[in-house]
Amino acid sequence: MAAKDLIANLRYDLSCSICLDYFTEPVDIPCGHTFCKACLLRSWEEAPTQGICPECKAINESRSFIENRELEKLTHTGKRIRPHLLQLVQGPSICVEHQKAQRLFCEDDQKLLCMECFVSKEHTIHKVFPILEAAESCRNKFQETLETLKEKIEEAEIVINEDKNNMEQCMVKAETFKQMIVSEYAKIYQFLSEGEKTHLECLENCRRENWEKLVHSEGQTSQYIQHLRKMIRELEDDLEKPASEILRDARSTLERSKALLLQCPKPASQAWPRCQIFGMRDMLMTFYRDITLDPETAHSSLLLSEDLKSVSIGSIQQDVPNNPERFDCIAAVLGAQKFTCGRHYWEVEMGDKTEWSVGLCRESIERKGQFLPAEVFSLTGFKMGDDFILWIHDLMEAFLIPEPLYNLGIFLDYEHGHIAFYNVNSGSLIYSLLNFDFQEPLQPFFSPCLPNKHSIIRPLIICTIPAHS
């Protein structure tokens, strides 16, 4: 048999039939076959039958094995001498230039040298070693790298095992979190359902009470009208009586007429509950938008802050360009943002300001002269005596509120044609505009309104909401 075949057989005899590499911690099993300890244990873990031999399939029910220390030593020795044996069999390579055996290695140039190459000027200052010594050094480096690579494989396998464990836990955790989320939303649905029921019951009670007040007021007013008509007929009859009869009952008739004239019936006042919905502002804040003012649209009497977050009425009109976007009749300014889709929410602080108008308008709103009501969807507030009145511009509808409105929230759902106004301080809905077909971009609308002698002048301030709100 050729020497090369003997060396190949040596490698085969010292190799594990599972990993096809030199034995590592070789162990013998009862059937006579030998494997790496780790390879055998891994094979047994993966095999459907316990203790089966990976090679001859013999059953080893006790899963016993014996460590083969002598084979481990022989494997170590075989690994080290194999390269030297191959070198002896192959013999030295021949230098093409000098036709001499190359027995040296230049580390700088990474090439084999013969003696004549070595003594040449080209390699006099280079690091040159005997070829076997250089190869041994290289093998040592290979071995170090090999060990490092194997360690990396072990580390990677640990990661794989952790990933497999985490994959199992992932499904469990996902299901746990799913149950937690479903449970939390179920609580919210329950709270909302109970809140809705309470609000509707309260609304029905208020409707009934208001209806009873109106019916009672209508009855009293109808009775008052009957008394007036009776008094009118009596006076018409007295006008046709002789002078003596007119004078006889004149004082009594006039006193009764005066009493009726002093009465002043008024429509019954109505009271409606606040629509305070649990967690509404927290939900609205998910749609918060950072609104800024567009100075190109501001009326010349308005003063805007440097950060374009507040607007107030100035004492004199400013010298500004009369560009097409600018209002020239209404003391108003628009937000820089234009909305064509989506849901959006922002808040405006009015404080104790006595006149203001805030909301949204169509992009096509008339900037020169008066605009049409249908172009604006705003809430206007103004103080009249001791009462504070809110006016829905688009609906031309006004109503009293029990207290001034200090902070206003505005919500837009463009696709559903929905605009809502909220009292931020009380956390309640003021009014909702529903089912509008906007058909064009909308912009935030702000007007501090022209003051009168009784006005409290304050700026309108667009609130900056902290990131954690």
Structure description:
The chain has seven helices and 22 strands. The chain has about 475 residues and is an alpha+beta fold. The chain has an eight-stranded antiparallel beta sheet, with no helix packed on it. A six-stranded antiparallel beta sheet has the order 12-21-14-15-16-17, with no helix packed on it. It has a three-stranded antiparallel beta sheet with strand order 2-1-3. Strand 1 (about 25-30) and strand 2 form a beta hairpin. Helix 1 (about 5-15) runs antiparallel to helix 3 and helix 5 packs antiparallel against helix 6. It is elongated and about 165 Å long. It starts with a helix and ends in a 7-residue tail after the last strand. About 15% of the residues are buried. The model has no long low-confidence stretch (mean pLDDT about 85).
Quick overview of this protein structure:
It contains 7 helices and 22 strands.
